[in-house]
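Narrative of activities, Objective 1.

The group set out to show that a structural description can be obtained from nothing but a protein's sequence at a throughput compatible with the screening campaign. Below is one input-output pair from the validation batch, recorded exactly as produced.
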Amino acid sequence: MDTTPADVSTGLTQAQVSERVAAGKTNAFVADTSRSAWSIVRANVFTLFNGIVFACFFVLFLVGRWQDALFGLAAFANAIIGCVQEFRAKSALDRLALMNAPRALVLRDGEEAEIAPGDVVLDDVLVLRAGEQVPADARVVTARGLQIDESMLTGESDPVEKQPGDDALSGAVVVAGEGTATATRVGADSYANHFAGEAKRFSLVSSELRTSVNRVLKWVSWIIGPVGLLVLNAQIIVLGGYTTVFSNGAWVQAVVNTIASLTAMIPLGLVLMTSIAFAVGASRLARRQVLVNELPAVEGLARVDMVCLDKTGTLTVGEIGFDETHPLDGLTSEQAENAATALAWYAASPDANATARSLRAAYPVVTPVVVEGYIPFSSARKWSAVSFIGGSGTWVMGAPEMVFGDAATSSDTELGRTVTALAETGRRTLVLGYTKSSLSDADVDSERLPNALQAIIVLTFREQVRPDAAQTLAYFARQQVGIRIISGDNPRTVAAIAREVGLDVTEGFDARELPDDDAQLADVLDRHTVFGRVTPEQKKRMVTALQSHGHTVAMTGDGVNDALAIKAADIGIAMNSGSPATKAVARLVLLDGQFSHLPDVVAEGRQVIANIERVSMLFLNKTVYATLLAIIFGAFLLEFPFLPRQLSITDGLTIGIPAFFLALMPNAARYVPGFLRRSLSFAIPSGIVVALGLTWYTFIARGLGVHEEQLRTGATVILAVVGIWILAVLARPLNRFKVAVVGAMFIFLIAVFTIPLAREFFVLVDPGEDLAVALTGITILMVAAIEIVRFAHRRLVLTVPTRGAPRATTSSSTVPVSSSGPVATVITTVVAVLAYVFGALATGFGILVFLGRYDPDVSASAFSLTGAAIALFGLLVFAVAAGVRRGSGLSRLMLTIFLGIAIALSAVVLVFGDRWDWGAALTVAFAAAIIVLLWIPPASRTFGRILESSMGSGRP
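Output recorded for this entry:
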């Protein structure tokens, strides 16, 4: 291959380009702009959870029992929701990358050509002009005032002036001047693509919810095989033995019973509900211009206790802004007027750099002037000079120390004192000098300062701080989230910006002095807040060092130099103005670049964690009791008391559907580590209660000699009522919305047990009077036991914070019991106790009325509905009793309504029943007495206002 360097005046020939293309020395580089399609499908479809559920699902289809395969819909829905949401995020990121795709100018065969960056080859002569992006690493050949902004790569916010022989990095932007450069590194070898290639390696975001759920699934997977064999053996023996079941086809029922027990062990809805909560959170954030690249990132920021911020593009908008004019002594009014004209010309000149352009708003052109002599600005000289026709004198603007030397920093001069004081605030300073002599041709040719120059004005500039930065950092401070500002810029400048946004820092730490030892680095990070002159590799080391000290770290940035640190962080956050590589590895992308969206993300994450923790207790409770039932029934050779479709009733209406609403409710509870421990500390004892109660019921039913369909119906009733009660317990503190959800689920259950078509599909029959009495008593005892478990859980677990975590506080809306005197306190306590007793008795009475008239006859069905309604309102009375004890006005109102409805329903039983019903009479008397006690003085003065109270307090 011809390796002859290109002639800088003509560039490569077409033959040389073809040879380099054939040798693979092109700039082609496929950098992922987002997660790959395969990684999205793999993460959402090929999971242990889906494998177990789909296997059971297809087995039921193969044996022809599709009615019992409803649980498979949860697995399908979970996979679809996850894939759709993440494909939408991928599509959005890909579109952003496409819109931001640059073009490259090269010199070939003596002519300029505009090509795609990927078509640049090694040794190409690149044409660099203001506004162009450098497509490949190159060495500058010619330069005329060439300034390049490399902040996206190095973090240094100041443009760098390039001279022949200097390196220009791919991805940098030309901000002033022009020049040519020869491509030295292309494709994957280039500086920017090196980071993109390292950063694009796939990894899932850390998620405590997902990790905890996967841990439970792993535990279940360890035992599901042995338990499945145990249950299958028991079902085969119960149905007649191995020889009989395979000859008469009863093995199908044995398989169905086994699958019912196994699928009940898997928290099907918890995985689905977590995905739904993530997806809804991501959709809400999308409306706030926050793109979620991976669903669990919605949760992530709520767990973050350390936020690392890149200064340029995050705290600042990446642009210089004019700050203030500081006249020096001796400035006359005429000089001030002429100085304003000179500053206006500098701001409007065609070759004005970003600093000069920032003067345009303060110094608009009022009087046009004609230039007589002009020395353009150079970053090597750091000053420029101009003389105007018709105006006497020369105006020089530049860095004070470059124009006036030592006098600009000496405490003996006014200029030195002014410049030093202003520089200590982190502001950048320029000086405007004046001399009465005009620029000569010799001055212009030799680029020298005129004589007798006098400093008359000091100009200060500062980076434009995002208007939302201070309030966002103040929010994190209130939430006890640590802040570390990490920048490639000067430590003094970074510290000044930090002070401007409200951080209490004195000076920045120079990253060139950071220790090489990771443990020592972590100690430095614990002691300091602001760091300057940080390299991209150091940013990544700093993130991992913070993580080694137990911090959950978020990293924000927009440049390629931030990509590795963003990838290493627990939650990476990129600005939409950032590079495609940075946005690809980030978990969240702020589409409008507004830093103030981060509190919104925190709020969504907290809502997800707090609500999923609440509903996880529902699902894990089912996993515990289902596992125990499978083991107990397998060991005692009992036929499993449920069909899969019957479990679909209890799963859907007492867990799945209400959990959907509870998971999406507002919830601002602080994150406290230990999600799984807290969930299991309730789920295990409550699951034991349910398993033992159903086992006890099964032995009683077998002793009564009822047939299998009656036994299953009774077991379904018990599980439904107890499930409703567990739902009501975990929904506390109750409000109107939660009461509506609980009530609606009970009404749907009544419909399932009452509508003939539903009863036939779910195989529900009359359990008989004796079995109805037995299951009612067992249900009441189970409800009482669940209440004891929840009481112990709240006192022993939820009030004990995890080490290092903030103590869970009670809701600010809770209204304490007023100190209205001992009589009022006694009355409210008595009312609460009576409400608990009434709730338990009304629930039992309602179940008896419901089951005692379980018959397709129309009038009996009416009584069935009446009994179910009495049971429902008994449960609701029980649920709001705690709020009454705390003085909640809303609890008093709702308790009164529930009691009134229970009185009306009991009256129906008394009036239309064929005999006097003492249960209904006691219900009416109890309810009336409680209502009277609620509303008579002095108890009535104990309760707070209805709109300012809740029905409970504390963590859910």
